[in-house]
Amino acid sequence: MIKKILILDKNHPFIIYKLKKEGFICDENYNDSTDKINISTYDGIILRSRLKIDKKFLERAINLKFIARIGSGTENIDKDYAIKKGITLISSPEGNKDAVAEHAVGMLLCIMNYIIHSHQEITKGKWNRETNRGIEIMGKTIGIIGYGNTGKAFAKKLSGFDAKILCYDILPKVGDIYAKQVKMNTIFEKSDIISLHVPYTKKTKGIINYNFIKKFFKPIYLINTSRGGCVITSHLAEALKNGKVCGACLDVLEYENVSFNNIFHHHNFSKSFLYLIHSNKVIFTPHIAGWTKESKYKMDKKIVEKIIFFTKKIIKIN
């Protein structure tokens, strides 16, 4: 019987309201570190990215039945040990898929049409039309790597641009009316634009490296709204310098930690990152692609629905 839930990050008030209405006891702890939290009495926890849920913490979680991570990434959780202990992992990637997709489209339009660069020039009294001549998405081939919730939403948003959309995924038969699933070799051969929509795992860590980029037949635009560690910053800088990458849209950075804190407080940056910062071929946002007012509610709503479904499923089994 699941009764007590500990909430470790501030979320939409809907979560506590709905769970209490369903009969759950909800406690909140938004300040303590994992070593100070008495987790032994709780059946479930809800969190975002503030804390790292490691083996040491899970060993003390003797009653824990589920961990609910609001959002899509679960890299701050020791998933293997949690599963070994019989703890179910719940996430809500459906809740912010449209926010991420819209953000990716917005970044792409900005980089291909010099929107931010020309704005900055105008504020400095410069009126340069020819040097800010843009490139259309129409007629281009877009390769989506990772065709899950956000990849599919991105393809749907692009469907009105009259572009050819391809997707690659490790799972078979995930293509749909918005994107044709192909082998990676076809992505390398055909793509003008690449958008990354993969989870952060051992296999995707540093997936965008110089050897990977060299395989593209044409210079590409790169969008990364997944995780910063998927792109090696120094390799991207090198590809921008030699023209293998025309432009990059980065919502996430290699220098972020699992809680996505302000990177400027913690890091001595490489020359490569400083190059990206000063390049007019790169635009950044601070990990906000899925960070809309609407997605905050939708992710929380989806998590509550999944928790309730999970608990009812356990009751049926028992």
CATH topology of the largest domain: Rossmann fold
CATH class of the largest domain: Alpha Beta
User: How many discrete structural domains?
Assistant: 2
- CATH evolutionary superfamily of the largest domain: NAD(P)-binding Rossmann-like Domain
Number of strands: 12
- Average pLDDT score: 93
| Helix count, DSSP H or I runs of 4 or more residues | 11
Give helix % range.
25-40%
Provide the descriptors you would attach to this structure in a database record.
single chain, 318 residues, alpha/beta, Rossmann fold, 2 domains, five-stranded parallel beta sheet
Walk me through this protein's architecture:
With 318 residues, the chain is of the alpha/beta class. Helix content is 34%, strand content 16%. The chain has a seven-stranded parallel beta sheet with strand order 8-7-6-9-10-11-12, sandwiched between helices. The protein has a five-stranded parallel beta sheet with strand order 2-1-3-4-5. Helix 1 (14-21) packs parallel to helix 11. The N and C termini lie close together (9 Å). The model has no long low-confidence stretch (mean pLDDT 93).
Outline the fold blueprint.
Layout: E1 4-7, H1 14-21, E2 25-28, E3 44-47, H2 55-59, E4 66-69, H3 79-84, E5 88-91, H4 97-112, H5 115-123, E6 141-145, H6 149-158, E7 164-168, E8 180-181, H7 184-190, E9 193-196, H8 210-214, E10 220-224, H9 233-241, E11 245-250, H10 271-277, E12 282-284, H11 293-317
Parallel strand pairs: 1-2, 1-3, 3-4, 4-5, 6-7, 6-9, 7-8, 9-10, 10-11, 11-12
Helix pairs in contact: 1-11, 4-6, 9-10
